Amino acid sequence: MTVEPGDEIAVEYVGRFEDGTVFGTSKYEIAIEHDLADEREADPDSYGPLTFVVGDGQVIEGLDEAVRGMAVGESDTVRVPPEAAYGEVREDRIREYDAETFESMVGESPEVGLHVHAENGLHGDVVAVREDTVEVDFNHELAGRTLTFEIEVVDPPSV
Q1: Do 55 and 81 share a structural domain?
Q2: Where would I find the PPIase FKBP-type domain in this sequence (predicted)?
């Protein structure tokens, strides 16, 4: 039986950037090996197969499409371009704020790399701090990147 839209499946995965750097995984051992988790602090039980319903928009489009037609136990390596992952970097999601306004909104002094949560639910990272302004990038951290996933369907599709 092959995976079809509407099936609930589980997938083990390793996600890599084009240079081979691992950015995410469902496997504890790989997370430790690639410094994605601290062996002393990470809970091995927090890792495990990614479960989702195919075609319900629960995962990025490229991954959703890649599992269609696969069988339980089947593995594949798929390349997912930005438009089928987290989209291209959008300039309209990079915003500039007056430094004083930023500090009063966030409650912290701006510094490059600071992660902020906006009232509208967006998350962003401070990417530049100038004398009077602060630039915050609200694009997804993986926007604009081509991703490669090593995937294996590990649970049978629902009937």
Answers
A1: yes
A2: 6-88
Q: What is the CATH number of the domain that holds 52?
A: 3.10.50.40
Instruction: Please indicate, yes or no, whether the overall pTM of this predicted structure exceeds 0.70.
Output: yes
Contact assessment for residue 147 and residue 141, using Cβ atoms and an 8 Å cutoff: no
Q: What is the rounded CA–CA span in Å between residue 44 and residue 38?
A: 10
Which H or E element spans position 102? helix 99-106
Residue 146: Cβ-neighbour burial (10 angstroms; 0-12, 13-18, 19+): middle
Sequence letter at residue 159 = V
Answer yes or no: are the C-beta atoms of 74 and 3 closer than 8 Å. Answer: no
Q: Are residues 65 and 30 in the same domain?
A: yes
pLDDT digits over 47-69, tens only? 999 999 999 999 999 999 999 99
CA distance 131 to 60: 38
- Rg (C-alpha) for the chain, rounded Å, is 19
For 69, the token pair is: 């037609």
Contact 12, 30 (CB under 8 A): no
Please tell me the total count of domains within the chain. 2
